[in-house]
Amino acid sequence: MEKSGVLPIGKIIGVHGMKGCLKVFSFDASTDWFDPGHSLTLKRPDGKIQTVVLEDVQIHKNIIRMAVRDVNDRTTAEGMVGAEILVSRSDLPEPEEGRWYWCDLIGLSVYGVNETYLGRIENLFETGSNDVLVVKDRETEILIPVLKSIICSVDFEEKKMIVDLPEGL
């Protein structure tokens, strides 16, 4: 499977205090990327790429307050609001068996167990109880829950997913 490119793992959503602390919303449940001393790559809204080094980090749920080297005032920090925090796809750990990264599923062709083509995975979203695949074929859109009972197989080399849809889906 191709593991190139970069993925956003968070976004700077605001500032905290007068000393330039940044408020970050993490897209990932893991906060391993945000350890003090760690370097992060930022992509600012204007497209500029910047590397920062974390000095201090405080975590509360999905909001991370972090101080970065050479950002010592609120004005400098405000200029960073809106920047995405990026990681290389190759730096992500292998997912557990039967689990996948959303970015790897998008674009796969989806077939029913009877080999009927259902469409391509265009997007995914969370519902709270499970993730849902958005599968499109021209004008037709099918929402498929990501459940062990429905997802039969995923073949990244063939770029193919086989699903066993319950009646009525």
Compile the SSE list and pairings:
Layout lengths: L5 E11 L4 E6 L12 E5 L5 E12 L2 E6 L5 H5 L5 E5 L13 H4 L3 E4 L4 E10 L4 E7 L2 E6 L5 E5 L4 E4 L6
Parallel strand pairs: 7-12
Antiparallel strand pairs: 1-2, 1-6, 2-5, 3-4, 3-6, 4-5, 7-8, 8-9, 9-10, 11-12
Kindly list the characteristics that best describe this protein.
six-stranded antiparallel β-barrel, 169 residues, SH3 type barrels, 12 strands, 2 domains, 2 helices, six-stranded mixed β-sheet, mainly beta, Elongation Factor Tu (Ef-tu), domain 3
Please describe what this structure looks like.
The protein is mostly beta strands and 169 residues long. The chain has 2 domains: 6-91, Elongation Factor Tu (Ef-tu), domain 3, CATH 2.40.30; 102-163, SH3 type barrels (Roll), CATH 2.30.30.240. It has 2 helices and 12 strands, in the order βββββαβαββββββ. The chain has helices at residues 74-78, 102-105; strands at residues 6-16, 21-26, 39-43, 49-60, 63-68, 84-88, 109-112, 117-126, 131-137, 140-145, 151-155, 160-163. The chain has a 6-stranded antiparallel barrel. Strands 10-9-8-7-12-11 form a 6-stranded mixed β-sheet, with no helix packed on it. Strand 9 and strand 10 (140-145) form a beta hairpin. The longest helix is centred in the middle third of the chain and has 5 residues, at 74-78. The protein starts with 5 loop residues before the first strand and ends in a 6-residue tail after the last strand.
